[in-house]
Amino acid sequence: MKLGTYVEVRLKSKNIDKSMSFYEYLGYRKIGDDVMTDGSINIRLSDENFTSPTLSYMGTSSDTIRAIFKNQKQSARSVQNAEFKSLNRLTVSIDRNKSKVKMPAGTPVTRTPISRLGRFGEFSIPVKSVAQAVIFWAKLGFEPLHIAKIPYPYSIMSDGLIVIGLHQSGDFDDFTITYFADDMQKRVTTLDDEGLELHPMKSRTTHDTYDNAAFRSPDNQQFFLFNSDV
Q1: Can you tell me whether residue 22 is helix, strand or coil?
Q2: Do the domain assignments include residue 107?
C-alpha cells in the first residue's frame, strides 16, 4: 500500500504572510500557493480549521482507500478525501486528487537541501511503543531504514516520499520537523545572533556543548536542530 504520490506537512497559520516570511528567512522557497519547500519536504500553510500538523497525501489510489475503509460501513467509492489518526494521534489525510505541486526531486535521502537548517532528517513522532508503531506504519507502505534500542528504542522509516522517526523516548511530546548538519553549532550560533528564539538541547552523547537546539515557528510548529551528519 502507498498512501499517495505526493505528501506535504500541512500547518495551521493565523497569519500566512507572516509564516511564509519566516520560512523564507529560514531558506525555504515558495513553490505554490501557500506552499514552501526546503528541497526535501513541502510545507503548506493554511488558515482553515484542521488539526495541525497534518501529514497530507494526494494522489491516493482507489485500492488504498478500499484498504483503509474496508471495515467501515461507508463505501470506499464515495470517498474523495478523508483523514485518520495514527496510534499516537497524528492526523493523516488522503485525497484522490493529484497535487498541482511537485515533490522535490530525488528520494527522501538523496534530495538537495536548500534551507539554513541543514538536511531534513525526519518528521519526528513520539510513540509509546516503537514495535506497535512500526507495524502500524508498515501497513501504510513505510519501510524501516534504521532500528535501534540505544539511547532508547526508535525506528526511522520511509514510504519513498518522506522520512518519519518513531521515538519511544519520553523526551518530547509534539510532532517535530528535525534537521541534521555536521556544522549545526555554527548554524545555531548564527540563528541565535540574528534573534531567532532558540532553546538549547543537551545531547545524550555529549555533555559539554549545546550544539543542538529547538524552536517554534509562528504557526507553532516545533523544530529540532541536531549536530550530526546524517
Answers
A1: helix
A2: no
> What gap in Å lies between CA 39 and CA 21, rounded to an integer?
17
| Maximum separation of any 2 CA atoms in the chain, in Å | 58
CATH code of the domain containing 60: 3.10.180.10
- Residues 164, 80, 51, 116: what is their CA dihedral angle, to the nearest 10 degrees? 50
What does the buried/exposed string (b/e) look like for 114-134 if buried means 16 or more CB atoms within 10 Å of the residue's CB? ebbbbbbbbbbbbbeebeebb
Task: Give the domain-ending residue among 61, 95, 129.
Answer: 95
pLDDT band at 116 (very low <50, low <70, confident <90, very high): very high
Round to whole Å and give the CA distance between 220 and 223: 9
Domain that holds residue 23: 6-95
Q: Are residues 124 and 217 in the same domain?
A: yes
Q: Tell me the pTM.
A: 0.93
Q: How far apart are CA 63 and CA 1, in angstroms?
A: 8
- CA 187, CA 4: separation in Å to the nearest integer? 34
> Do 132 and 178 have their domain in common?
yes
Per-residue pLDDT at 81: 84
Size of the chain, expressed as the number of residues it contains: 230
On whether the CB atoms of residues 34 and 48 are closer than 8 A, the answer is no
- Total domains, the chain: 2
Asked if 125 contacts 38 with a C-beta cutoff of 8 angstroms, the reply is no
| AA letter at 107 | T
Q: Is residue 109 part of a domain?
A: no
CA-based Rg of the chain, rounded to a whole angstrom? 18
User: Does residue 50 form part of some domain?
Assistant: yes
Which pLDDT band holds residue 208 (cuts at 50, 70, 90)? Answer: very low
